[in-house]
Amino acid sequence: MLNRRILRIKAFKVLYSYAENPSMTLPEAESLLEASCEATRSLYLFMLDIIPYLTAEARTRIENARNKFNPTDEERNPNMKFAFNRLSPLLEQDPDFRKIISRRKLSWEPYDALIRSVYDSVCVKDYYKEYMVSAESSIEEDVRLFTRIFEEEFVDNEELEKILEDISILWCDDLAYSLTVCCDTLKALAKGYRWSLPPLYRSEMLHGSKEVESDKVFVYKLLRTAYSCYGKYAPMVADSTSKWERDRLFTTDMVLIVMGLSEAKAFPDMPLRVTINEYVEISKFYSTPKSRSFVNGLLDRLVKKQIEDGDIVKTEKNA
């Protein structure tokens, strides 16, 4: 489930916490990393479970309209296509899915206002209207509809963002990625596969191929190296800047550069340009507009110096 970019971000956030709280022990840092990784999978489960709730909202409104004192012809004979889509029962009636949702205490019940708001938004969209009048009736069509809902209704939804923040601080910034995994799951269901919990790490999805390095090993080795080297690399970053720059050096940039140095040290076979590019990309989302060039230039210079000094060893092919 989690790819290397997401894992780097999670390790970066843990190291940032350590930079802000130097009393954090390595076991505490590793525990935070583990919780952060698992939290993303919980967010995926939470968002996937919104499908039965949106379906139930449609059925409730249809029933309420029918029970009005003087319903219209349309209310007496409503279009039931969405209310009885084929996708919702696959999750609503799957014992494994329901069990893990219950075990993790995930529920949309307290957030019925959001469910109503999302349903209202969906109902006025052209893609929904086209779905409702289409003569096609298939699991594939239902999946295409819910994929559009996941792509268009949840990102930048302020009400949803507030709910997620209230539920778990570890869900911060993970929504877009979790929605992508939800859409992958929908595609699998459309092909006839039964729902199954995605492996936590992307490498585990390749059925233990010996040619693929474990992502779990990667992220824990990265964090341990960054943690142990922070006391050496952080002053090095500060000493490599002018006094004016040092006074304005953001902790975020400091941690990003330490992460890059640590990755270069921990993984001799990792191409240097890949490492630098990754932390430059992360800086775009977690630091200032000027951080991109700052992280790129200083990280490149410091890694090369550490290679010259022998602290970092890279293979001849990638150096």
Give a verbal description of the structure.
- The chain is mainly α and 319 residues long.
- It contains 16 helices and no strands.
- The radius of gyration is 24 Å and the shape is elongated.
Give the gist of this structure.
Helix content is 68%, strand content 0%.
Largest sheet: none
Which percent band covers the strand fraction?
A: under 5%
Radius of gyration, whole Å: 24 Å
Order of helices and strands: HHHHHHHHHHHHHHHH
**Secondary-structure-derived class:** mainly alpha
**Given the structure, what is the number of helices?**
16
Shape summary: elongated
**What level of helicity do the residues show?**
55-70%
Number of strands: 0
Query: What average pLDDT do the residues reach?
Result: 93
Distance from first to last alpha carbon: 30 Å
Poorly predicted spans: none
